[in-house]
Amino acid sequence: MRKARTLIYLLLCLLIPAPASCWAENLKVLVVLSDSSTPYLSFASALSKGLPPSVQTSVLESPERLSSGLYQADLVVAVGMKATEFAASKITIPMLSVMIPKMGYEEMLARVSPKTNHRPISAIYIDQQWDRQIEFWRAVFPERRRIGLLHSQDTNVDLERLRKNVAQRGGSLKAQPVQSAGELFSRLESVLTNSDVLIAIPDSTIYNSSNIRNILLTSYRYGIPLIGFSQSYVNAGAMCAIFSTPEQLAEQASEVMVSFARTGHLSEPQYPATYTIAINQQVARSLGVKLPPHETIRERMGKTKEGE
Fold first, then answer.
1. Rounded to whole angstroms, what are the CA distances from 276 to 10, 60, 97, 299?
2. Per-residue pLDDT tens listing for the chain (308 residues)
3. Who contacts 225 (Cβ-Cβ below 8 Å, separation ≥6)?
4. SS3 sequence, 20-48?
5. What is the set of domains in the chain, with CATH numbers?
6. Which of 26, 132, 236, 251 is the most exposed place for a label (fewest CB within 10 A)?
């Protein structure tokens, strides 16, 4: 009689959508970090704490270690672009990529999809969706209507749609393409001359360690606030930023992983579900800008949930 009950339970786990305990009991996850920097380690730590005990995780702090041996896993979680590139080329099991820009994910997918057309691949982007960024701009700077944007040829920005979205909220978009490093600052000055606020995007051709200091100083000299996309940008001199922390992305990733454990399917690529707001009051005071408090910004945005 006991054997019959056990057989029925196993059949139910195989034939119907079961609770996480049916599938997650044997789920093995390999977490591959792009490097051992603080954001990636924070993600890995938060992920381990947020998963049910039945999910077994192993962490590699360097993607190069993937080539030194075979790892038994049901799912690989690649954290950052470097880890994503390595995992996509060396592992054939299902992959969830996190903390990468949408543009980088789509470029990677175009390269590897012919070789891995039977492998589920998904992502949780690090960049915020444009609707959220526009709502943030309107909540923080309701009187500033002209939006400046720099983009390189590698950035897949639907400018027509973006202009329409900005116009629907009473603004206008001044976008300038940057074809080379030599023309960056002439383009920047052209944008700043015709803008009330500059929005930075995760475009490494423009916003990289070699350029960011001069971009911040130039926008400050013109008296134009810069909206960044990370806490580090605010610390460096951006007036404000909207972004998702490693801990918030880890929580979202754990939900995707538990769903994968339960159903055997990865969800579609998605933007961050939660976000954080950071403000640099010192820069705001220096430019004579009065920023609304966090509570007011959240209330004005209204449509999405913020984490601290």
1. 43, 27, 21, 14
2. 444 443 333 334 434 444 433 444 578 999 999 999 999 999 999 999 999 988 999 999 988 877 655 678 999 999 999 999 999 988 889 999 999 999 889 888 888 765 555 779 999 999 999 999 999 999 999 999 999 999 987 777 888 999 999 999 999 999 999 988 889 999 999 999 999 999 999 888 899 889 999 999 999 999 999 999 999 999 999 999 999 999 999 999 999 999 999 999 999 999 999 999 999 999 999 999 999 999 999 999 985 444 44
3. 141, 144, 197, 198, 219, 238, 239, 240, 283, 284, 287, 289
4. HHHHHCCCEEEEEECCCCHHHHHHHHHHH
5. 18-126+248-263 (3.40.50.2300), 130-243+274-306 (3.40.50.2300)
6. 26
CA-to-CA distance for 109 and 126, rounded, in angstroms? 16
Assigned token pair, 179: 């074809």
